[in-house]
Amino acid sequence: MAFRLGVLVQVLAVLSLSIPVTADVVPENPVTYTPVDISGFSDSISHWRAKLGRDRKDARFDPAQIVEIAANLLRYQNADGGWPKNVDWLADIPETEVRRLSGDGLKKSTLDNRNTYTQVEYLARVFLQTGDPAHRAAAERGLDYVLREQRPTGGWCGADVDAVTFNDGVMTGVMRLLLSIRSGAPEFAWLDDARRRAAGEALDRALDCVLACQITVKGRKTAWCQQHDHATFAPVKARAYELPSITAGESTDVLRLLAALPDPDARVIAAVEAGAAWLQSARIEGLRVEKVPIEPVRFTHHTATSDTVAVPDPAAPPLWARYYDLETEKPFLCRRDGTRVETLAEVELERRSGYAWYGRWPAAFLEKDYPAWRKRLGLPELPQ
To answer: Domain map of the chain by residue range?
Structure first.
């Protein structure tokens, strides 16, 4: 018995030499991820800060913290598969606090302010890196929501009016998502055949809708309104100050989408040519718009720290108005109550400082994208 005990002691002594001490164990390196583009969330984050989080100093996730950001997306995805608008998706805020601040707004899924399709794209890219089935499942549910929300005539709407909506990138944002799926984007390589087929069919319907919405004035195709009727495709009103019109900013977004189609047919080519020609004709020369600092004025949806004024300037680069008349094609502006006016000075401060009435939205498209598109298609070079 004593012999056996002595052997056991010797064995344990030898083994103890090969067992590492806990303090010397080096932990495994934590998993690091490549940042995923977060630019699609900027609109929602901006609205959150302006309306709910303007006085807060919350911690924020770094773009490389894709798992933490994805957790925010999963946390606020609704039962229907969509996401609410006006949430700071990068903020590290307790869920109870977000729900207290947002109230019932969190319960409503929407495509408005560039939501839902952006979350689908983000989660699809995150899934490529993490392989987490929860990320894939959330992206699938989000895509299912997008496909269900398409109207029979091909359009999607935002939150302001039930109409085909080009405002806030609703139509073009969804269509870019579907185009990336059809084009074989690697972040959607995992997508099942049924959803892939449904996405392609939805894109075809949406393209037909976009082309039907292009406004004709005196027999000539021009561009697009912010919103169009689902059935007639005619321009329609949204908020009180968003009247039926031809728009420069949204039309530029539409033309960029059409120019991104890999194999445009004759209808698409004609639509881009007509839209670009209209943008050229709608340029405003000799006007400069600038910001003038003022004492802060708090409004319901924003705080004005500057006023916006229009100043004659022969040397100013071309500008475009937000709205153009459907018959005369002349620019106009609006007061919040929907009253049409002709000059920026007639718009009240709240709308002058809280809405972009003039901009250079088409400039880059006309100077670079459009000529490059024509060259890609082998169309004649534009005259200088």
So the answer is: 33-149
